[in-house]
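Notes taken during the Thursday session

The instructor put the following on the board and asked us to keep it in front of us for the whole hour. The protein is Class I SAM-dependent methyltransferase. We were told not to look anything up and to reason only from what is written here. First, the residues (281 in total):
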Amino acid sequence: MSQPLLVPNSSLHRYVRAGHRRVDGWLSRLDALLIATVGQWQNAQGISGSVGEIGVHHGRLFILLALLRKREERAFAIDLFDAQEFNVDQSGQGDETAFHNNLVRFGIEPASIEVVKGNSLDLAWTGLAGRLGPSARLFSIDGGHTAEITRHDLGIADDGLADDGVIVLDDYFNPEFPAVSEGLCRFMFERPGTLAPFAIGDNKLLLARPDWAGRYRGVLADAVPLRHFVRETELFGAPVTVFRTPRTPMQFIRQTSLTRRLRSHPLGQALKPIIRRFVQG
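Then, after some discussion, the predicted structure tokens were revealed:
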């Protein structure tokens, strides 16, 4: 594994390690690390564009995006905020006051953020580009969790995504919101070949243009600690790396380097049922 891309003791590093926990929302430390690693690699490669999110809630993930931007880059936040009558699935509750207060807490000037208040179903990238920039390099989708809203919001992100950009989709595998999976499936059917998944985190799915997905997979494989690696698999016909925060004894055992070496060894095959019975009781 190569050296991590995050500069120790930087504001970004501190936010990924612990700062994000001080903001209400849904973002694990691992998912923050995956997104920050991608964003810092983009910075190192000279990749530029705006960064932003549909569905910012109180800003837990958005602050991470804002900390990743370069001086000349724009950051945008799209949310219903006070128009909660359109929050049909109650997947979050944006609060503009809490959002602004959290920006200030982490040294981000609210005036430097382009805020778009309203229902994303009424928006299109063509009408937003003048305010948000010609293209985005990091675009988080965490708005309404119905199939139609997810499909629509992915369309906005796809239309605005730079060729070397990345989309972060929330709750794709969350059983509480199965319609998010349906929404991405609809999008992939309607726009085949435009996006390819490349990494799965605790609760985030990362997608990029097919020509770039492999490069981003390699970046994460080199930079993310091995204890988070689970397996290589496929999704929508594309190779995908699965990362997880180990939370149970069995997960800790499965994600050790020794277990990975033993997985295909006869001794490992023999020990597998014994270990499972011991750990699970």
